[in-house]
Every structure is written in C-alpha cells, then in structure tokens.
Write a structure and sequence with these properties.
With 98 residues, the protein is of the alpha+beta class. The chain has a single domain, classed as Alpha-D-Glucose-1,6-Bisphosphate, Chain A, domain 4. It has four helices and six strands. The strands form two sheets. It has a four-stranded antiparallel beta sheet, with no helix packed on it. Strands 3-4 form a two-stranded antiparallel ribbon. Strand 1 and strand 2 form a beta hairpin. The protein is elongated. The relative contact order is 0.09.
Length: 98
C-alpha cells in the first residue's frame, strides 16, 4: 500500500482482508524530503518478541542495511552523470561489483 511519504507492506492480511494465521511482519518504509536529501526510515513490526528474535537470527537487519547501502550507491551513481553510468568508467565500476 502506498501512502504519502511511505510504502507499507504486510502479510498480516490475506486476500479479502482475512487475518493471516501466522503473520510474518509488517514493514513501513518512510521517505521524507529534508532539504536536498531524503530521510529513509525502515520499520519492521512483529507480532511478538519471538518473531523479532527469529528475524534477527536470520540476519534481516544486515539484509536491510545491505539494501539501503546499494540504494545509496545507485542514487549517487545516477547523480554523478553518464560518465559513471556508461562507457569505460561505468564498465570498470560494474566489473568491480559496484
């Protein structure tokens, strides 16, 4: 679901707005303009402490951090212009895994 300033996702509700028997979590991704920057906040809501602990043990925090790091890198490349997106410089970045 999209709302101003954010994207929300949940598996708490099944089709027809029926409650899920064992929901995973609800995620809120909040994007707020702050001058020339954007503040990004990710919130994970779990049904209970056990569910939260489970996700931590599955390295979900590291996964979220990796995703945001990649997004920041992508945006910076886009802002840098065509020199980094294509041509020899861009090819070198891609070979390095950037």
């Amino acid at each position: 679901m999209r709302v101003p300033g954010g994207i929300f996702s949940t598996d708490t509700l099944l089709p027809g707005f029926r409650p899920a028997p064992k929901p995973f979590f609800t995620a809120a991704l909040l994007l707020v303009a702050s001058g020339t920057r954007t503040r990004y906040t990710a919130i994970a809501l779990h049904a209970d402490a056990e569910g939260r602990k489970n996700r931590e043990e599955m390295s979900f925090c590291e996964g979220w951090n990796t995703a945001i790091d990649r997004m920041v890198h992508f945006v910076k490349r886009q802002q840098a212009g065509p020199k980094l997106r294509g041509g020899p410089a861009g090819d070198a970045l891609r070979r390095q895994g950037h």
